[in-house]
From TrEMBL:
<dbReference type="InterPro" id="IPR001764">
    <property type="entry name" value="Glyco_hydro_3_N"/>
</dbReference>
<feature type="domain" description="Glycoside hydrolase family 3 N-terminal">
    <location>
        <begin position="68"/>
        <end position="408"/>
    </location>
</feature>
<keyword id="KW-0378">Hydrolase</keyword>
<dbReference type="Pfam" id="PF18559">
    <property type="entry name" value="Exop_C"/>
</dbReference>
<feature type="compositionally biased region" description="Low complexity">
    <location>
        <begin position="1"/>
        <end position="36"/>
    </location>
</feature>
<protein>
    <submittedName>
        <fullName>Beta-glucosidase</fullName>
    </submittedName>
</protein>
<dbReference type="Pfam" id="PF01915">
    <property type="entry name" value="Glyco_hydro_3_C"/>
</dbReference>
<feature type="domain" description="ExoP galactose-binding-like">
    <location>
        <begin position="763"/>
        <end position="879"/>
    </location>
</feature>
<dbReference type="InterPro" id="IPR017853">
    <property type="entry name" value="GH"/>
</dbReference>
<dbReference type="InterPro" id="IPR041443">
    <property type="entry name" value="Exop_C"/>
</dbReference>
<dbReference type="Pfam" id="PF00933">
    <property type="entry name" value="Glyco_hydro_3"/>
</dbReference>
<feature type="region of interest" description="Disordered">
    <location>
        <begin position="1"/>
        <end position="49"/>
    </location>
</feature>
<feature type="region of interest" description="Disordered">
    <location>
        <begin position="633"/>
        <end position="669"/>
    </location>
</feature>
<dbReference type="InterPro" id="IPR008979">
    <property type="entry name" value="Galactose-bd-like_sf"/>
</dbReference>
<dbReference type="InterPro" id="IPR002772">
    <property type="entry name" value="Glyco_hydro_3_C"/>
</dbReference>
<dbReference type="InterPro" id="IPR051915">
    <property type="entry name" value="Cellulose_Degrad_GH3"/>
</dbReference>
<dbReference type="InterPro" id="IPR036881">
    <property type="entry name" value="Glyco_hydro_3_C_sf"/>
</dbReference>
């Protein structure tokens, strides 16, 4: 639905629907409210807080003039820890490296601060040796993802994710978090972080929604600036110990793609791009951000031209290949003079490029190429050098890139800083990383981010002497509290051992009321509600990050619709309601979801977002204070509209600074049945005397159509090949890799080879011990309704020959959002199979349906995934009925 809305920030409500509670009734706006934006009709020329320094420019030019072509390209390559050695740094003159999520020194999940410092120091020393015989030196730079604290390091402080910070209404808090994060990163010897994310997320289906501060570009503008100021400081402080280089990401409109698709396509006008999706970048660049990371997404617009027309493969609108957005807009129009860096292997998705060839993307304006695999980054180095010598890439383009790299390193004072292990903060790193002061700051942020949507009868705050039943799937779950990007990529497997100072909400409640007055029963399997004064129901999404967290266009936005485990939370609330026990619901989520029935069944309802591992920040507000202690009120206000219906995925407030705003094709106008249930800025206080919320209107799910009839077996892989695209993905394989039937495939998580089979084409799959999935995907991406196979008693069948049995669970599934939906574990069966002999595996579709798979929308009819090792040969895959 598109249209023009020109009246108010929120369009008129459906007159037949009950009115939503008023936002912040009777309460003045806080002093920290972000300043209003002004509409932009063209790209503004920006003035950075860290301006050009003639002395720096002269030194850069002097060094640049002495570099060979190979050395220049080495400064443009950024491999990751698992695919790089100190010898590589010496040989290729590599300028920087990074550690990906879930990659630790020596593969040690709980690597110490000293381990990290030693690792970074080793690569730094290798770079020093590389330049020993030259009349100059170029310091090495280490980069890391620190998106909510130094989240890849064991023992570091983890902060609430950005969506929660956007709810606090406190840019100064965000600035202080930036300061703390910078100190912890610096204490491990690192120089550069890939944060903040300044996307403006506009579709709740997007799996990275929580990485943005909210749908309101005004909030993103204010908080993006504040975080950069905290991380970097001013010109002088950036050179000092304790500050790190910030990266604004992801340029641009990754939060505005159609259907919220990860790495999808944005079709917004350039005005929308400028006034909504660019606002965080504009503020961050003015604050002095020294790096911008480019988005995996595409922008489909006539302005996004092919800078090298006539090639065999025309430009495919990927931003990584957009000379218009990278060079013409970001560098030339805005005047950004720092580093433009690619995302992980993202150059490979640009038409005409590949994992080992980034030529078109380099010509578009990329300065540093984040290339993971060892063979790939070495190939990119070789091909880039060759392209320059052949005249495909101008030397001026290489010189621009290396000038920016050297400029940023000098601005960061890297020539003046000692080796990492001798820096002031690294010498006291264990006392900085995860310090009590920083944990207290995270607790404060969690407390301030809570948004109160309902508090009927003044139930909150709770008495500290109440008998409390703590229930719900998230009651005692640190991974749900922290979300993705927490020690590992998806963050779904963290526990108290990973977060040694962490406390779940259940832990925090026990500390408040005492263990004798608190019973924790997440599934409500044992406790009798009659024995309690109140139930605290903690419900919420499982942890996820990019890829896994994105909801497909056909999925409901209803919380209880998404997973069977989420539906059980709704059932718990229904049981408590029947028992007459008042419930206080605390919702942990990375995005607004439809949960109206859950709100109706709760006497009080609190949105806690992803508050981090310090559950005390939640109980600080839920419970009355101890005598003499400060009382805390609910400060949080919604940074995004709350959906009224199950399909309100891309419904957002009309930006108040754009009086003639036209709703883009990717969004739905906030009017009629799509009027938000709660608007941006809504949030109650304990002081409010507003009337009870009452029963909110429930949006009933649509009735499913009859299952289509089955007209034969469903072919996946047989003697004739496959009608699907065979791929692997998972741990640090973010650009999913094609699996050929005619030759080998090698990547860091799976190796495949063609294999002879008794009934046609076969594949050998070696899973290497990291989270990995092999799958057959619809070539169009469209799902099929396959419930007819279920009704006909169908099975998923295939031949398997077990060479090395699986060491962990190995799941069969029919979806591609690993492992957001469950599968059927085949490991016990495969371990019992005769070694080296072909075995027929047949799994009834009834088992897959019972596990919670949506057979009405199947775009991946076959998937195997595991986190362990295994060597299997598979063949003759299909869905068959008796």
């Amino acid at each position: 639905m598109t249209g023009t809305v020109t009246t108010t920030p929120t369009s008129p409500a459906d007159p037949t629907a009950p009115a939503a509670p008023a936002a912040d009734a009777g309460r003045p706006a806080p002093d920290t409210a972000p300043a209003a934006l002004r509409p932009l009709t063209e790209w503004p020329r920006l003035t950075s807080a860290i301006p050009r320094d003639p002395e720096v420019e002269a030194r850069v030019a002097e060094i640049l003039g002495q570099l060979t072509l190979e050395e220049k390209v080495g400064q443009m390559i950024q491999p990751e820890l698992a695919e790089l050695t100190p010898e590589d740094v010496r040989e290729y003159r590599i300028g920087s490296a990074l550690n990906g999520a879930g990659i630790w020194p020596g593969g040690k999940r709980h690597a110490s601060v000293a381990d990290w410092v030693d690792t970074v120091d080793g690569f730094w020393s290798a770079a020093e040796e590389a330049w020993r015989d030259r009349p100059f030196r170029i310091p090495f730079m280490w980069a890391t993802d620190a998106v909510h604290g130094h989240n890849n390091v064991h023992g570091a402080t983890v902060f609430p994710h950005n969506i929660g910070l956007g709810a606090t209404g406190d840019p100064d808090l965000v600035r202080r978090i930036g300061v703390a994060t910078g100190r912890e990163v610096a204490a491990t010897g690192m120089d550069w972080i890939f944060a903040p994310t300044v996307t403006t997320p506009r579709d709740r289906r997007w799996g990275r929604y929580y990485e943005g501060y909210g749908e309101d570009p005004t909030v993103v503008h204010a908080y993006g600036r504040a975080m950069v100021e905290g991380l970097q400081g001013d010109v002088e402080s950036l050179r000092a110990d304790g500050k790190v280089l910030a990266t604004l990401k992801h340029w641009i409109a990754d939060g505005g793609t159609e259907h919220g698709a990860d790495r999808g396509t944005a079709r917004a006008s350039e005005d929308v791009l400028r006034n909504i999706h660019a606002q965080g970048f504009l503020a961050g660049i003015e604050a002095g951000a020294q790096s911008v990371m480019v988005s995996f997404s595409s922008w489909e617009n006539p302005a996004n031209y092919d800078h090298t027309p006539g090639r065999a493969e025309p430009y495919n609108d990927k931003v990584h290949g957009s000379r218009y957005l990278i060079t013409d807009v970001l560098k030339d129009a805005l005047g950004f003079d720092g580093i433009v860096i690619s995302d992980w292997d993202a150059h490979a998705e640009v038409a005409g490029c590949s994992a080992g060839d980034a030529g078109y993307a380099v010509n578009a304006g990329l300065d540093v190429l984040m290339v993971a695999g060892r063979e790939a980054w070495q190939s990119v180095h070789r091909s880039t050098v060759r392209y320059v010598r052949e005249g495909v890439i101008p030397m001026a383009r290489i010189d621009d890139a290396v000038t920016r790299v050297l400029r940023v390193k000098m601005r960061a004072g890297l020539w003046d800083k000692p080796r990492p292990r001798e820096r002031a903060l690294t010498r006291s790193g264990a006392g900085v990383v995860g310090s009590a002061e920083h944990r207290a700051l995270s607790r404060e942020a969690a407390r301030k981010s809570l948004v109160l949507l309902k508090n009927d009868s003044g139930l909150l705050p709770l008495s500290r002497t109440a008998r409390v039943l703590v229930t719900g799937s998230a009651a005692d779950d640190l991974s749900k509290q922290c979300g993705g990007w927490t020690l590992t990529w998806q963050g779904d497997d963290v526990d108290h051992a990973d977060l040694p100072e962490g406390a779940t909400v259940a832990d925090a409640v026990r500390a408040v009321v005492g263990a004798d007055r608190c019973v924790v029963d997440p599934a409500l399997e044992h406790a009798d509600p009659a024995g309690f004064d109140v139930a605290l129901v903690v419900l919420g999404e499982d942890a996820y990050a990019e890829m896994r967290g994105t909801l497909k266009p056909w999925r409901s936005l209803g919380y209880a619709d998404l997973k069977q485990s989420y539906a059980r939370d709704l059932e718990v609330l229904r049981r408590l309601d029947t028992a007459g026990l008042p419930a206080v619901s605390v919702f942990l989520t990375g995005r607004p979801l439809y949960c109206t029935e859950e709100i109706n069944l709760s006497a009080a309802f609190v949105v806690a977002w992803l508050p981090g591992p310090y559950g005390q920040g939640v109980t600080d507000v839920l419970f009355a204070p101890e005598p003499g202690a400060p009382a805390h009120d609910f400060q949080g206000r919604l940074p995004s509209s709350w959906p009224r219906t199950r399909d309100s995925a891309a419904v957002n407030r009309v930006p108040p600074h754009l009086p003639d705003y036209r709703v883009p094709p990717e969004e739905t106008a906030p009017e009629g049945r799509y009027t938000p249930l709660f608007p941006v800025g809504h949030g109650l206080s304990l002081r409010d005397t507003a009337p009870a919320t009452g029963t909110l209107p429930v949006d009933l799910p649509p009735e499913a159509p009859p299952a289509p009839p089955v007209d034969g077996p469903l072919r996946v892989l047989d003697a004739a090949g496959t009608p699907y695209r065979l791929k692997v993905g998972g741990h640090n394989t973010w650009s999913r890799v094609d699996v050929p039937l005619t030759g080998p495939m090698r990547c860091t998580i799976v190796r495949s080879d063609p294999a002879p089979a008794p009934e046609g084409t076969g594949l050998s799959l070696r899973f290497l011990g990291n989270p990995a999935f092999f799958y057959a995907e619809s070539p169009t991406g469209a799902p099929a309704d396959l419930r007819g196979h279920l009704a006909a008693g169908g099975h998923v069948r295939f031949l398997a020959r077990v060479i090395e049995p699986p060491t962990h669970a190995l799941f069969l599934a029919c979806h591609d959002d690993y492992p957001a939906q469950p599968g059927v574990d085949l490991a016990p069966l495969l371990r019992q199979a005769p070694p080296g002999e072909w075995t027929r595996v047949s799994v009834p579709l009834t088992e897959l349906a019972a596990a919670g798979m949506d057979l009405r929308h199947v775009d991946v009819p076959f998937m195997l995934y595991t986190e362990g090792t295994a060597l299997l040969e598979i063949a003759d895959i299909g869905w068959r009925t008796p």
